[in-house]
Amino acid sequence: MLDADAQKPPRGKWSTPPFDPRFPNQNQTRNCYQNFLDYHRCVKTMNRRGKSTQPCEYYFRVYRSLCPVSWVQRWNEQIREGTFAGKI
């Protein structure tokens, strides 16, 4: 679940995230954070149901495109340590 490098799509398949009306402003920080949360919630839910996590790939691609790597690494460390502030 936390190994983002193992879930990268093939080279050349990345696209820019589409417009999200929830985040109309130039600052995409909240968009980044929300898609990070949505990805982890999706994976958790799909694993609990015993289904494929393929539908969660959209959120993964969006947060990987928008979020700085250092933020994602810090959030993943916090999740592992149990200190992450977001509700997953």
UniProtKB/TrEMBL annotation:
Region entry Disordered, spans: 1-26
A cellular-component GO term for this protein: mitochondrial inner membrane
Disulfide bonds: 32-67, 42-56
Keywords, ordered alphabetically: Disulfide bond, Membrane, Mitochondrion, Mitochondrion inner membrane
Pfam families from the UniProt entry: COX6B
Keyword rRNA-binding appears in the UniProt entry: no
Subcellular location: Mitochondrion inner membrane
Membrane topology category: Peripheral membrane protein
SUPFAM superfamilies in alphabetical order: Cytochrome c oxidase subunit h
Pathway: Energy metabolism; oxidative phosphorylation
InterPro entries (UniProt xref): COX6B-like, CX6/COA6-like_sf, Cyt_c_oxidase_su6B
Primary site of residence: mitochondrion
Function recorded in the entry: Component of the cytochrome c oxidase, the last enzyme in the mitochondrial electron transport chain which drives oxidative phosphorylation.
Family: Belongs to the cytochrome c oxidase subunit 6B family.
The protein's name: Cytochrome c oxidase subunit
Species the sequence originates in: Daubentonia madagascariensis
